[in-house]
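Dear colleague,

Following up on Tuesday's group meeting, I ran the structure prediction for the two-component complex that the binding team flagged. I've pasted the input sequences exactly as they went in, so you can double-check that nothing got truncated or mislabelled along the way. The structure tokens for the whole assembly follow below. Feel free to forward this to whoever is handling the docking comparison.

Inputs:
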Amino acid sequence: MADQPETYICRCEEVTREEIEAAIKNGATTMNELKRWTRTGMGLCQGKMCSKNVSRILSEATGQKPEEVLPSTFRQPVRPVRIEVISGHD
Amino acid sequence: MKKAELVIVGGGPAGLSCAIEAARLGAKVLVIDENERPGGQLFKQIHKFFGSREHQAGVRGIDIGTKLLEETAILGIEVWLNSEVVGISKDKHIWVVKDGKTSLKVEADKIVLSTGAIENSLNFPGWTLPGVMGAGAAQTMINIHRVTPGDRVLMIGSGNVGVIVSYQLLQAGAEVAAIIEAAPRLGGYGVHTAKVRRAGVPFYISHTIKRALGTDRVEGAEIVALDAKWQPIPGSEFILDVDTICVATGLTPLAELAWTLGCCFQFVPSLGGFVPDHDQYMETTVPGIYVAGDIAGVEEASTAMEEGRLAGISAAAALGYLSGEERERRCGEVWDRLNSLRSGPYGEGRRKAKELILSTEGGIACDRAI
């Protein structure tokens, strides 16, 4: 990988590689923890673009196997929906 | 509230094939698609497909898409466009947002998820500059919207997507400065690769991008050679004068709805990572929820259509439109075709990966949703 410490990994929330690594150094071991700690995956794309790359960083840094690094929890709505649309829900 | 016997989420090759199969057997089908027209990626696939004649080899993706739409219309299948499925509850109530404005609920007896896959991103300094995009996005621009993304393109990745889109960029009038490949060998089918090479495009194996140059948009790319351990070789850097960088480094199944439903998953890197566990009828570990196409493991449009047919037959049988015996016979025919599609140097690995999914008892992360 050619990414540098200051390279964005999650572009929606502008989270860099060093911010993700710092969170791991401070004890984050799961994607959910990384999400809450850094906001990675909490933007418009909901992790569709960054999740795989963040998982790889977490897996390499902690020695977890790739299949052990589960994506952060998906919840409804899985796409961004405006509040006014939600309030009109029957 | 709207009710439908079978709701298909995603009207690409898998979803439409599923809809046609199930509707032919008598099921009341609703296809929901987020795009303004159905067909998924087929309409940008202006190249001829591979395989045998029964798999429509030699036919262009765009023509296969047209045919699927014709059949969908003849069968009177209901298709909702510009409609996103943003949630599905365990009792199969589907939350749909139409035109980004209206929130609707649909009650389904059976659901097929044929949501496809998303292109992987590659993080290098400058990857968020305008001018860096997925190869599939560039293909949409040239073949659907008829605009070239730039004048000089660097393609990252030499797999089929990389070489096919490179060729189509040339046809659209762009120049392809190079195709770089991090692995020590090329990844695409020989016939596509050779066509691009004959057109004069240089290939660099064991090379990757170090950074994109430019402040407001891409003005160049710095390339570096990799050693046998995939480490950059200092001093091997060189600059390519490009205004566009296309990334063709694989795809990931779009499975977030399957995650929220509590489906078990399998982890299969060669099929794109986490894939909803499914049986030979394409049913997931949540009864009545099926998958087909790239969400069930990233392959090709031809296999996606066959998996769609499997899901359509299975769902129709579960709805009572087919006997168990008849389901076996029809699914068996599809499986024969799938096995022949998944053969040869490229297909064999996919067949083995798929067999692993079918033979593995119990997946990982089951019922993690709640």
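DSSP finds four helices and two strands in chain A.

Cheers,
M.
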